[in-house]
Amino acid sequence: MTIIQDRVAVTDVPVLDVFAERWSTRVFDTEVPLDEEAFASALEAARWAPSANNSQPWRAIVARRGTSEHESLMSHLLGFNQAWAGSAAALVVFVAETETEDGTGAPWAVYDTGQAAAFFTIQAHARDLATHQMGGFDRDGVSAAFGLDARFTPVAVMAVGSFGDSTDSPDFLRELESAPRTRRPVAESLLRNA
Which stretches make up the Nitroreductase domain (predicted)? Predict the structure, then answer.
């Protein structure tokens, strides 16, 4: 696995290496095709994410670079995401099934879809794929472009591919790629810790 040492998180307590080493790049190699075996492994990990009543309320739209689907997804990304995401080997939309076929609401679906995306991300990183999740996209546009029923809600778009070389990137991307990795302390995230 490629480990970029200056990107490894400095954690307050030990965590698995795959968590400390994972980070969201915006620089992907534009020439390297998607590692299909590693990608299939990440999808398999997502399949095994926990869900309420084993309902598995997630779906995915996969759009590989060079396809009309990739081009369509790129057109629905917002703002800054359009400046860098196109270099990824694939874009994946994680979609939550927020209602069942009979119209019953599934309030846990977005949470469970997030877990599937997280499992995908960690497995992708373990297999040397870079990822970056995005919330900045036109959900209605994606739904229309891919003919999603109203019961399906696009939750996030993830760029996936091989790490690129930031030295060949514009200044603003090089700055983002080299910025220190920070998180607020755990204590500040706990509303109550009795």
Answer: 20-66, 78-161
Q: What angle do CA 156, 33, 64 make, to 5 degrees?
A: 40
User: Tell me, what DSSP letter sits at residue 169?
Assistant: S
Tokens coding 140: 């209605």
* Location of structure tokens 């690129």: 164
**Inter-axis angle of helices 36-47 and 109-126, nearest 10:** 140
pLDDT digits (tens), the chain, 194 positions: 555 546 889 888 989 999 989 889 999 999 999 999 999 999 999 999 999 999 999 999 999 999 999 999 999 999 999 999 999 999 999 999 999 999 999 999 999 999 999 999 999 999 999 999 999 999 999 999 999 999 999 999 999 999 998 887 888 788 888 888 888 999 999 999 99
Alpha carbon 103 to chain centroid distance? 28
The fourth-level CATH superfamily of domain 45-177 is: NADH Oxidase (3.40.109.10)
Q: Is 116 exposed, middle or buried (0-12, 13-18, 19+ CB in 10 A)?
A: buried
Is the distance from CB of 106 to CB of 99 less than 8 angstroms? Answer: yes
For 159, the enclosing helix (H) or strand (E) is: strand 152-161
